[in-house]
Design a protein that fits this description.
The chain is mainly alpha-helical. The protein has three domains: 9-103, Alpha Horseshoe (Serine Threonine Protein Phosphatase 5, Tetratricopeptide repeat); 115-213, Tetratricopeptide repeat domain (Serine Threonine Protein Phosphatase 5, Tetratricopeptide repeat); 226-288, no CATH class. 77% of the residues lie in helices and 0% in strands. The chain has helices spanning 7-26, 30-43, 48-60, 64-77, 82-94, 98-110, 116-128, 132-144, 151-166, 170-190, 195-207, 211-224, 229-241, 245-259, 266-282. Helix 4 (64-77) packs antiparallel against helix 5 (82-94), helix 7 packs antiparallel against helix 8 and helix 12 runs antiparallel to helix 13. The protein is globular.
């Protein structure tokens, strides 16, 4: 007969499985890590860290419902486990359960997890739920707390653009757009590789009539993500409007090469094709 392992040996086996699982995660072997965490938790079910790490592994695989279950198991062992609460809030948002996600992040605030990251996520949720004012306050709070991430600055810029859209007074609208562009600059100062910030700075610059700045911003976005279709299209339009015929033509054609087969781009593709025909004539190259 095989000897029966004592509880002490069983616990040791579980800890070794958790250690190996963490190694597998570090190597990107997520499936193997999941199996090791699960086997270890069959022996030692009271490890909140293992449940949390299992949730992270499920999240990497896109198994969000299982990710949520794992974080909830960790929180059954420690209801104030900050890391599990934070990730649970993100996962619930991914599942579309925004009210529950907001409850989780508000609980983090009560647990002295009063950080820019928590406030930024509260702002994102409120914005998605249509509470523009609440979102603005949350992003401002994140910035006031010294946020190092570009996200609160960028998100607040998006809020200000939305407020500008709803503003009837032209001067007030211009003020909001200028503030939004300044926030984009602050975001880029924190993350120079954030192509969406660069792109949206271009959109705001266009609305302010700052065409050269818009061109510069779209080119920055494309230097980071060369195949970003909205930036290519908008850059072509902007170049056309400032009279850079040859460059506009080349940019429209670059856009068409990557967008022509994308159903989401159909309306823009038609517009780009029409512009290409006109630009061929204007640039003296004849029509295709």
């Amino acid at each position: 007969m095989f000897p029966v392992l004592s509880p002490l040996y069983a616990q040791t086996d579980a800890l070794e499985m958790f250690r190996l699982a963490s190694q597998k995660m570090a190597l990107g072997k997520t499936d193997e890590a999941i199996e090791l965490y699960k086997k270890g938790l069959e022996i030692k079910r009271d490890s909140k860290e293992a449940w949390y790490n299992l949730g992270v592994a499920y999240g990497k695989k896109g198994l969000v419902a299982k990710e949520v279950e794992a974080y909830q198991k960790a929180l059954e062992l420690d209801q104030n486990y900050g890391n599990a609460l934070f990730n649970l809030g993100l996962a619930l948002r991914d599942l579309g359960q925004k009210e529950k996600a907001l409850e989780v992040f508000n609980k983090l605030l009560l647990l002295e997890q009063n950080t820019p990251e928590v406030w930024n996520n509260i702002g994102v949720l409120k914005l998605e739920m249509g509470d523009t004012k609440g979102a603005q306050e949350a992003f401002l709070k994140a910035i006031e707390m010294g946020a190092q991430s570009a996200d609160p600055y960028f998100n607040l810029a998006i809020v200000l653009v939305r407020l500008a859209d709803a503003e009837k007074d032209a001067k007030a609208q211009e003020r909001l757009l200028k503030e939004a562009m300044d926030l984009c600059d602050q975001a880029l100062a924190r993350d120079q590789r954030h192509f969406r910030v660069a792109y949206n700075k271009g959109v705001v610059a266009h609305r302010l009539g700052l065409k050269e700045k818009a061109v510069e911003a779209y080119k920055l976005a494309l230097s980071i993500k060369p195949d970003y279709k909205p930036a290519l299209y908008n850059l072509a339009v902007e170049l056309n409007e400032i009279g850079k015929c040859d460059e506009a033509l080349a940019t429209f054609e670059a856009y068409l090469r990557i967008a022509v087969s994308d159903p989401k781009e159909t309306a823009f593709v038609q517009g780009a094709k029409a512009q290409v025909e006109r630009l061929h004539e204007r640039c003296g190259q004849g029509t295709r």
